[in-house]
Amino acid sequence: MSTSKSLDDVLQEYEILKTETHLESYPFVSLEARKLGEWRPLLKDYVLLEPGIRQIIIDEEHPGNKIIHLKKGTTVDSLPTELREKFRANNLEINIRDVLVGTNHLRYDEVISRLLPENVPSVSSFETIGHIAHLNLRDEHLPYRSFIGQVILDRCPQIRTVVNKTENIKNEFRVLPMEVIAGDDDTDVQMKEHGINFVFDYRTVYWNSRLQDEHTYLVEQCHDNEVVADLFAGIGPFAVPMACAHQSPSSAKARCFVYANDLNPSSYEYLKQNVRLNNVEDRVVCMNEDGRKAVHVVIEMIRQHISERDQTLGENPPDPEAGEKRMRVEPQPKRGRKPKPPPVPFNYFTIPSRFVMNLPDSAPEFLDAFVGCLSPLFLSTELKDNQTIINTITSQSFSSATSHLLVPPSSTYSPLPFVHCYYFTRARPEDRPAEFVERAANAFGGFRIDSQLASDTTHTLSDILSLREIRDVAPLKVMVCAMFRIPFQLAFKGVLEGT
Ligand SMILES: C[S@@+](CC[C@H](N)C(=O)[O-])C[C@H]1O[C@@H](n2cnc3c(N)ncnc32)[C@H](O)[C@@H]1O
Question: Does the keyword Mitochondrion apply (predicted)?
């Protein structure tokens, strides 16, 4: 094949290939149509499974018969004894016939590799986002990109638009720089990920279908009624499913309360739409802040709600009989009809048990947001009598705080939140824990999350820091998720020093 084919040459060859047919010989057996039901299960291991060739057709020469095409090399003698005897008892033969084979069955990558010049590598995969195929073409492909896009449109019926990444993602909101290379110029996506509906404009927000297993993994770690803060939520692939009913270790149908934040105004708009679309408005608070500021905004929201509740309770102490009275007047559900559970108000009174930080390019730099993040809850004078918070702080000496840190990750309910920090690294697996501790210490003003281990001979770094490899992003570069509890001394910095 020539190495200097133009795009026009390739397109012309493609037109010819589409009409190309050739004859190929295949074994077959002709059977009375009424006996097909009996014979098909017996022949299941021998039936031809070639795309583009029909397995069963009418036998024009023997009215009332059907032809079953068989795999190449099948003969009566090659069949197991019992089946061979049955063939002979029924006077059946296996003969050979010529079948007209077209090119419709060729996969997109087969067509592309057949027609691109020899010196141009083939295209072996693309990411599917609803009706969009997203390609990362190499420079050698670019002169042929409209051909490549057209083949994908022709061969993949679910695809209406083909886009190519035009440069590396450098923008703040991690939006893919792209050009449409074939099909409709339409990047408005409507799709489902694990049963959850999402809408978004792929041109203006971040989306990565390769993260779907990670989205599911984290969602399934969450327990019923857990409060979670997703600081870089995008259009909601963690936040929305967490708020919907899902499988979890604690209950078959867990639902979380989620603070979902993203700085990209377009992501924020689609996040709100997706929350509405999946009917979880009562479970998700959407925010459009910088991720660092979002930590403080969430804590301030909680502080204010607790403060308002405590003031109201102070003015109107609860009537001990109120609950009973309400019980008495509640209407009974009609027989046979399941009572609809009342809507659960958003839980503004609990500190999030997880902060999710999926901004792998720079998430570790945002960890400074956790320094003293819970101190406002303690410093607030209105909260002096709030038992939860006072207990959280006063019941813990430094040593109990240490044991607290060492609670294994599976025991979720602890007053101190987990951080799930996604980041990129080139470090070797054995060097990654120390590397992460250093990166975190830079953000924590020198505080090391492993500092308690110096006086603790029973635990190691892996007890307080778990690192999971998520995916390869480039040669020797991987995306990792670091999970650790915010250390007590860090979360309440300021309070503990008496400032
Ligand atoms: C890698 S994406 C992750 C989105 C989503 N969590 C997911 O898994 O698909 C990172 C998101 O962080 C947002 N972002 C970037 N900088 C931010 C910042 N300073 N504060 C808050 N969000 C930010 C981007 O708009 C983007 O949606």
Answer: yes
